[in-house]
Design goal:
Two copies of one chain form a homodimer. Chain A is an alpha/beta fold and about 400 residues long. The first copy, chain A, has twelve helices and 14 strands. At the A-B interface, helix 6, strand 6, strand 7 and helix 7 of A face helix 6, strand 6, strand 7 and helix 7 of B.
Chain lengths: ~400, ~400
């Protein structure tokens, strides 16, 4: 298949592009390198020594004799370049990772809120409008987030794969069954843009029959995949800072440098997780199982296990001997929640999950300890204020 | 009160600004004159001879000895000017009309889809981010649309004021009551942006306690209000073209020039209506009945009567003697729908509606016939294609 990976230089995009190329697809990467530029802004860098995209792709070509063309442009801004690409390349599928994807970053200041809304919504709308205008029947595989559901789920009702069955009472007193998009309850500006993306997908799917799979992903952990491990020049990024570092990455980093694990609030928040290798495999499964023309947006929950943050800290503490430090929670969220998520679609398609229990030691040894000397200790805690406008962080 | 009217040079914004000034509020108008520029693009103009904003405001000042300062800038682009205005003027309320508001215009081409999404969402997000950053506790009164509900309503269930009561079944088989934002079902890119606005309001309301009233307005008819009638320089705009002219305005125009009334499809589509004078009064009522701090977004249905398009054509035909012409429907929508809408909030606040039956002859005589000689006949039918990308219209 011909596949464009938008955002193909990023943490999920890069290993996805390599996997799709490796199994025989014709892959093109589009990326404006915004994630690398944000590293400059935040004065941080990947713990792992990631190489420039040119070096990455030259190495891949040398090893695999496979060319992955790379185009550096912003799909939220340069619509006509996007349209021309779709018309010329005629992709069967496009993978849409081209969004600002950190909740804390989206809350840093008014500028960051505005950047996230402007970038994410124009990127998605431009992509959909260009598919319609080009007439190319490309299947859109989008990385959504479990966060569209929020974490105030209805007690005793598992989160379904995107659509909720409800009953509505008529004036005559009868109960009518309806199936609706799961009510949005985003916890940050970033998550909110993903709930707005859902409305874009629903609209273009209804009006123009654009085929869409929206993958509501949990927190991704793990750094390497089968493909990124092949050569050091292909190594994937590992973020441990307060904005882009996921909770698990921060724990691993903190443990590796002998810093206490920082848990925000009670640690009673339950979150969904998936290993990067499984995430990449899920995108592949979504591409090879496209919706039919006219089928409504397919929504899949891309997570394999749920854990409380406090339990996660204890798991890392047990593996590494690190202590745990409880801090105030900057997020405007419930201190304790349960999480019960339906995730049968991907398992049915053939996903065999990697569990935290089995895979975490590899991260501790192969990544966190191996590259600990590259860490900037001052960048580890989360400093974004969730309420009001924080301005530029002063730390 | 101190009130900013964003989009205060437009069809609803102008009479709203005058009304609020007339009853004693301190009003500032912000507008980038985009609606007048779109007239240039579409090569159409208001049937009524509207005056430049400078002339309008000079006349108002002369007649009423009241100054309405006018600032020409785009709130979707010039965030810092917006922020400075909020900090300096410290408004008690802001009325947000600063959005592209025509469904057919939003569907003309990819460019128009992209303009509408970019303009409307950045305008709303910038306004909310600036309120949070400024720390000004301004009540946001936003013009939404009945179109957020779509016209495929649940049979036998009246459309509530924004929130729908549903029952959800737990794993144990119990039914739990939930109240959710009415499931979005927009019929155009324009309507979709208003459903996305709802998610912006819900988010900033939940996270930052911004006070918001969202008025889901029906189709506005009527041209003049008590204030715009005072002097010819204050006259309001009347659009009859295929993009911005509402169905009723087009009927009135067609009747005035002896052109058959064009009904798209069977005319079985039911729509909600409200007279402009009532619309302006509703905004005033919303401002004088603000939500409490911490109260969820208040959603009010701003409509006073519902009619089938075919019945409306017959009413105009009866009043004017015009014939009726049935054309294909360019919109991707059901041919027949019913509409049962709860609109008790505004009536409870004191609204006394003007009915179509009683007010329509004034429009026929005072506007359509009075200015018929200014009409460009070629601009009357709707030429936007709803599905696919139509490019620039060739007519």
């Amino acid at each position: 298949m011909r596949i464009v990976v938008f955002g193909g230089d990023g943490f999920c995009g890069w290993p996805t592009a390599l996997r799709l190329s490796d199994i025989g697809h014709d892959v093109v990467i589009v990326d404006n390198l915004s994630r690398r530029n944000i590293d400059n802004e935040l004065e941080v860098s990947s713990l792992t020594p990631i190489q420039p995209i040119g070096t990455r792709l030259a190495t891949w070509k040398e090893l695999k004799v496979k060319d992955i063309p790379f185009l550096n442009f912003n799909i939220a801004e340069h619509y006509h370049r996007l349209l021309t690409l779709l018309r010329d390349f005629e992709p069967d599928a496009v993978v849409h990772f081209a969004e600002q994807r950190a909740a804390p970053y989206s809350m840093k200041s008014s500028w960051h809120k505005r950047y996230t809304v402007n970038n994410n919504l124009n990127a998605t709308n431009n992509l959909l409008a260009a598919i319609v205008e080009s007439g190319v029947d490309a299947h859109v595989v989008h990385l959504g987030t479990m966060g569209v559901y929020g974490y105030g789920m209805i007690e005793g009702v598992p989160i379904p794969e995107g659509y909720l069955k409800v009953k509505v009472e008529t004036q005559a007193g009868d109960l009518i069954d309806q199936e609706i998009l799961y009510p949005a309850n985003p916890g940050s500006i970033y998550h909110m843009t993903k709930t707005q993306d859902q409305l874009l997908f629903a609209y273009y799917n209804k009006n123009d029959k654009v085929r869409v799979t929206d993958l509501h992903q949990g927190i991704v952990w793990g750094t390497q995949t089968e493909q990124t491990k092949i050569h050091q020049n292909l190594i994937n990024r590992f973020d441990y800072d307060g904005d882009y570092g996921t909770v698990l990455n921060r724990f691993l980093m903190q443990a590796a440098i002998g810093y206490p694990l920082t848990v925000h609030g009670t640690g009673g928040q339950t979150r969904a997780f998936i290993h990067l290798q499984d995430s990449v495999r899920c995108v592949e499964l979504a591409i090879t199982h496209p919706p039919q023309k006219g089928e409504r947006v397919r929504i899949i929950n891309q997570m394999t296990e749920a854990h409380r943050i406090a339990d996660l800290a204890q798991l890392v503490s047990r593996l590494t001997g690190a202590t745990i430090d409880y801090l105030d929670n900057p997020r405007n969220e419930a201190e304790i929640n349960s999480l019960n998520v339906v995730n049968s679609t991907l398992v049915r398609m053939g996903l065999k999950p990697t569990t935290l229990e089995s895979g975490l030691m590899e991260e501790v040894i192969g990544i966190a300890r191996a590259f600990a000397s590259r860490a900037d200790l001052s960048k580890i805690p989360c400093r974004s204020k969730w309420i009001g406008d924080a301005g530029q962080p002063t730390s």
